[in-house]
Each structure stands twice: as C-alpha cells, then as structure tokens.
Design a protein that fits this description.
By secondary structure, this protein is an alpha+beta fold. The protein contains three helices and five strands. It has a five-stranded mixed beta sheet with strand order 1-5-4-3-2.
Length: 100
C-alpha cells in the first residue's frame, strides 16, 4: 500500500530548527540531518505498522533517525502518515502531546 505524507507545521519547525542548530555547529551537518529525517520518514512510509505505538489513544508511533538522536512521532489517518513532531531524544514527550 502506498501512503501519502503530511508533515504538520509544528514538525516542519522542529526539523528546520534542528537543521539550523547542526549547521551552526558544522557547515553541511544540517543537510546530513535533513537526509536522516527523510530516510526515517521513508521507512515509516514503507511500513508504518512496523514501528511501535507509543501513545495508544491516538495510535501515535515513533521512528528513530540514524546517526542523530531524534524521534519522529507520527500517526496513520487513512492512507496518510501525519508527522506530528520531530524531537531530540532528550526532550520530554510533553512538548508534542498537545499537538494531537
């Protein structure tokens, strides 16, 4: 089954802020971060049910990025994967729960 993708504005802001932070540390690192996020989202699009449900009420799932310590929180709405948040592994989950 082919899934569509919707990235909420808040998640886009999460991604942009993290990429900017990495680029300020080392030129080009932000682009590598963006590729890692894209790859993680692609894995979720391929097989969304393979990822664990971490919030049962809305069936929010989580996929991890490789190389970077980020978690991508998403849910399925019909044939669409909705990305709610992209957060560093040390940030508390409360930062995205109100986005549901």
């Amino acid at each position: 089954m082919s899934h569509r993708l919707k990235i909420r504005l808040e998640a886009e802001a999460d991604i942009a802020a993290a990429a900017q932070w990495y680029d300020q540390r080392e030129r080009g690192l932000g682009e590598k971060f963006l590729r890692a996020v894209d790859q993680a989202i692609a894995r979720a699009l391929e097989n969304p049910l393979a990822f664990p449900i971490i919030r049962r009420r809305h069936e929010v799932r989580r996929v991890l990025t490789q190389r970077f310590p980020y978690r991508i929180f998403f849910s399925l709405e019909g044939d669409t994967i909705v990305v709610h948040a992209v957060l560093h592994g040390h940030r508390d989950d409360r930062h995205w729960r109100d986005r549901l």
